[in-house]
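Task: encode each sequence below as structure tokens.

Item 1
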Amino acid sequence: MNLLMVAIFVLGYAAIIFEQKIGVNKAASALLMAVSCWSIITIQKCYECGVVLYMGIVLRSLNDHLHEIAQLVIFLLGAMTIVALIESHDGFKIVIDFIRTRRKRTLLWAVSLVTFFLSAVLDNLTTSIAMVSLVRRLVEERDDRLIFAGMVIVAANAGGIWTPIGDVTTTMLWIGGRLTTAKMMGLLFIPSLLSVAVPLCYFSLFMKKETVASFTPSENKGSVHGARRIFFLGIGALVFVPVFKAITGLPPFMGILLGLGVLWALTDLFNRQRDHLKVPYVLSKVDFSSIIFLLGVLLTVAAMETAGILDRWAVWMDTYLKNKDIIVALMGLMAAVIGNVPLTAASMGMYDLSLYPVDSKLWEMIAYSVGAGGSLLVIGSAAGVVVMGMEKITFAWYLRKITLPVFIGYAAGILSFLMIYHAVIPR
């Protein structure tokens, strides 16, 4: 039965990776994979234990996993709605208007660093879409524009590593009680920044000293003022979540619901005659398929944990690889192929909190490796897949032009993390 589950997992992820080729949405593949795996567990437990005991074993395990998964899904739903509200008010024009330089090298650094810091509080998808849209308006030459787009992917993924709300993977580890905000930001900021700075230096050396098209800031001042108000309210709501958790002790999804409630009320008051700027309309713009995809992935990994597959995988790696640093570094390479979300979920099932408590070296390094490792291939992250579609980037081009400098940056980030960790944490 376990072999059958592994086969379903492999087939399901093949369908997810080649989503555009087969024409089936990855959310559908994830749901089919999840239900199939849990159905196999049900049949197996009924055969081994009988129907009565099955009710106590499988359903209890499913309910325990749903308790954690539901918190993450609610959190992401609230966060994505807040981001959609900012988008509906053209809030990201503030960021676009901020970048004025016309020199290509300077622009590459500006776009990458703005993406890095913006992604720390917004989701990678929204940040990537906003910054690639800016690049399209400024960089006409396709070869250069693809380099810019590649760096947007790298910076968006790296920016989400060092804050609990910047990326789904760090949010999973944070909500799952593996990381705290202060330690995460203190230990992971420099490695994350290095993983962007190294490829930036590489591409800066080979980029021609040319200027790009001029860019005119937004002319509708009334729109900009409204955008500024909603932009800062939305960012404030997102940033307040860790503070709310620290003050009240309530789980993060309660903080995001508080922020959404406040923003919902204010936008209703600000836009009495503009229904298209209110939450009910904005909800139609939220990417629910991404949330359903995440739900399917997490349920699949939960099924594999319940079946004991993840435990055996962890034992195998510990037996043959032994060194945890090497194991976690390899996870980053696997994240480029499998994706960072399923790998994070798998690692949370492989290693128990009783052996690796909150803020231990393992969890901090996993947060870095799966986040930065997702940039090694264009299909390794949601940001990569979206930009791939927007700019028609091919898998082969990304592998040839982007992967090597990104890998060097990834390795530099790991080395810097190990140095910082051993310097800061007493043995």
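Item 2
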Amino acid sequence: MTKKTILITGCSTGIGYDAAHTLSQKGWRVFATCRLEEDCIRLRNEGLESFTLDYSCEKSVQAAVTETLMRTNGTLDALYNNGAYAIPGLVQDIPREAYRAIFEVNLFGYFDLINKILPIMQDQGHGRIINCSSILGFTAIKARGAYNATKFAMEGLTDTLRLELGKSPIKVILIEPGPITANIRINSQQHFEKWINWKSSRDILFYEKKLIPRLYSTTN
């Protein structure tokens, strides 16, 4: 019996990591992608098929699709868009380039990948597309504006795609996880340090008393 196949993004840690291992254990053939090759090596050592996919790079997305289809002889049963990151900071403190950067990964990369995979699923007559949003895709939280914006937009595009596909055999699914144990907070530290000039903020006390202690906390 041929195994069902799925391409999953953002598999270095968290939801993507758990999904990749769980589906593999349940008999799926999983293509677990990560942004960094060092993480792919670790996953390969754990028994998964893994190669790089960087949402911010169109060539990387195309290369991952090509690699996947080469391994499956041109078919794919499911796509799970999962990788994303956050930029903690107040809306008025986030520069334009930071918004561009996060939208490239959290939104544009998702739909670039979908648009490359969807014709394959349409030609084969079946498929499932799963987009990982968040409770922050429908509920705003202070200092999560950039992440909120990408998830709100992603939910709108996902719902629209589902309507456009109508009664076709391609299923479009949106999931909205709540708080979980993952590295997104730790990973967001580098983006905070790169983009947020908090010492010049009009609300510097918010950063000093609330955001920074939480962001750099050693406990969950």
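Check on item 2: The CA atoms of residues 69 and 75 lie 6 Å apart. The mean pLDDT is 96.
End of task.
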